[in-house]
Task: structure prediction
Amino acid sequence: MQVFFMWKDKEMDKGYYKDQLRKMRFELKRKEDFSEVSKVQKKLVKLQQAMEVYKQVFETQLTELMKQNNALKWGIFVMVIIVIVMWLKCP
Result:
């Protein structure tokens, strides 16, 4: 909806429209800023979700590596015991 005013003074007329233009530019800039913020927020949510997925994968891999590490430690321990027992049995 457009509203037109007939000002008696040309300067008032010019000032009114300049003010309206300034307000419209401000509104447009605010909407653009909101749009940019909205886009950034959406990207942030996607990145947080991706980070959670990577964190879960990392934790799973870490757990598997810790299990393998424990198995290797037990294997070395058993081998050391066998070597000690064999060494004690040899004359």
